[in-house]
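Sequence, please.
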């Protein structure tokens, strides 16, 4: 979560509509050997769907995971709140 991506407190529509900058990550088995990997979690196509998991990187590669997560949750200088 990046708190700087949250809508302004005085923006009621933004508070209701904006999910902010959040991304769920889960550790789950992956591949034929069942090795643990970090996965991005994406919502399914409907509210009743299970979340979809996208492999991010092996569990042991924490530096790579942290770098990728940081890039996803980063705000650029041109971003508006």
């Amino acid at each position: 979560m990046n708190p700087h991506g949250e809508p302004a407190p005085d923006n009621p529509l933004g508070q209701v509509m904006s999910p902010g900058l959040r991304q769920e990550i889960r550790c789950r088995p992956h591949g034929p050997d069942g090795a643990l990997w970090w996965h991005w979690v994406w919502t399914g196509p409907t509210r009743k769907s299970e979340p979809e998991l996208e492999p991010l990187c092996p569990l042991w590669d924490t530096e790579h995971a942290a770098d990728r997560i940081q890039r996803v949750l980063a705000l650029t200088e041109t971003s508006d709140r």
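The helical segments are 12-17, 62-73.
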